[in-house]
Every structure is written in structure tokens, then in C-alpha cells.
Amino acid sequence: MIHRRNLLIAFAALGLTRGFPLFAQPGPRRVHVLSLGTDRNSGPGMKTLDEGFRALGWKDSGNLRLVFHFAGDSTESLARLAAEIVRANPEVIIAYGPGPAVDLKKTGTVIPIVFVAIFDPVKLGLAQSLARPGGSITGLSTAVTDSGFFAKQLSLLREVVPKAPRLALLSNPRNPIHVLFRDLRVQTARELGFEPIEVQASAREELEPAFREAARRGAGAIYVGGDPVPMSEQALVAELALRHRLPTFFLFHQHVEAGGLMSYGTDLTDLSRRAAGYVDKILKGAKPGDLPIQQPTKFDFVINLKTAKALGLKIPQSLLLRADRVIE
Prior knowledge:
The protein has 328 residues and is an alpha/beta fold. It has helices at 4-13, 44-55, 75-88, 98-106, 149-160, 176-180, 182-191, 207-216, 228-231, 234-243, 253-257, 268-283, 305-310, 317-322, and strands spanning 29-35, 64-70, 92-96, 113-118, 137-141, 166-171, 195-200, 221-224, 248-250, 262-265, 300-304, 325-327. The protein has 2 domains: 29-142 and 268-290, Rossmann fold; 149-265 and 299-327, Response regulator (Rossmann fold).
């Protein structure tokens, strides 16, 4: 029997080891990220993704290779980028928002996908159930299904504008969640005594016309749901709300920190950190279809008093006492 050491020496003498390391070192694990927006500063979740991985022992450009793909505000680019990612064949894909997740699913890939911030992934067709997603997709949702979440948001807004007859609902016609839940938003607004006014924005340049139309049609307030377009333009949205004298309600607190009036929802940065945890499990052998879709356990209610004063609004004391945070 030839001893292994002697065999390696023989291979080396013959030049057979050229280009083949005798002791191969494992390379970094490859994770690709697909999102709307323009860069890693497009959304607050991106800024904390690295933190989540570092806390679990993963370091980008070390034992982890994170590759980001951004589609701007063009949903047409998502399908192309989704196909590019699948061809690159990473070990896991992170999808921020419903559009990226849906386009990745359409490719038919079996690469594990972890989505971040989708209102109802089951109704959107991404999973069989919350407890047992099945297939190759799992992730983190932004609301508790069938909890009357939207009604809770609008009831908080109604306390601030009790006499407002009309409410503008800003939606993105290219956002599949906005399309899926359009009727629910309209119905809930009517149940709370608002006449709904629907305005749309699927790109930055459409935000100002949407706010202008809402004001022209006599809206007493405007609701801005979760969407990458307003999220990437937080300062502009806050400025438009003040310019058109429209009290504005948001899903994410980052809008309120940027000058918006009120928000009630989960923390997008927390969702991003927790998504890193799911990627960690998958890289260590877990199957995405066996990982339950996580729903939020805590919602933050944030009020910007400075903005309220600028709009000439008096926030009821009872509402201030219920707020998790008041910005003054």
C-alpha cells in the first residue's frame, strides 16, 4: 500500500498538484440580496443586516459574501435581477419586500429565500401556511394576519382628525400587497367614517402629484403604507405632507423620525436583524419550508409633536399616554 504522504510527494513530482490545493479551505458562504432602492442606505433594514450577521459570527468579506442587487424604483428591473441572482446560484437569497419575493418565486428557483417585510405572505402565494411554509421560501411578516391591523392604524389617526371627512390612501400600483389589499383599505376607511380618496405613486417623481391631488380633493389626512418608494424618500414625503397641510400616518417609525406625524407598526430594523438569524439557520442545514414565518410580537406607536404643532393639530392627551415614543 502506498502511504498517503508518499503519494502526495509523487503527485507533486509529476506536477499533478498544480492548481489543486492539497488542503482546500472552505470559501465564504454566498448570500445575495434583492431589493428596490438604490444602495445599502435605501432603507433602514439594510443598515442593520450586517449587525445581525456579525452577532451570529458572520462577517461580510470574511466567512460571508453578501452581494446586493438594487432595482431603483423600477419594478421592471426586478425580474431581470431575480434571474441574474438565480443564475449566480448563491446559497441563500434575501428578498426585501413583496415585489422582489414574488419575482424570485416566479423564476421557479429552489434556492432558499428569506423575505423581509411582507404583510401577508400566504395570501400573496409565497407560502402554504405561516407555521409550515413548505417549499423554499420563509421569512418575516410586518403584521399579525387577520388582526384588524389596518383598522387599528386608522382608528389612531381618526382620534387626531375626528372631523376630517376624507382620507387619502397612497398606494403603489406595482406593489403586489397594495393591489391585493386595496379593497380592505377602502372598506376600512369607510367603516371609520372616512370618504377614501385613492392616490398613487410608483416612483419618486409621482409623490408630489399624489400629495397635490389629495389636497385638491379635500383630504383631511393621508395614509402611507409600507412601500420602498416613500421609504427611500422619507424627507421628501415629510416635506410634502407639511406643504399640503396633510396629517400623515405611516407604517414605519423612520418616517416619523424624518418629520412625519404618526406611525404604528413593527420595527423594520428588527425584522432585518432577525432575517440574518434565519439565513444563519439555513446555512447550517435548516430547510426554509420547515422554518415558520415569523410575525411581529410588538408594535410601536410613535408621534411627532413638532410636526403636529406645525400642522396646527392638538394631539389628545389620551393618545400621547398610549404612545411608545413622542418626538418633541
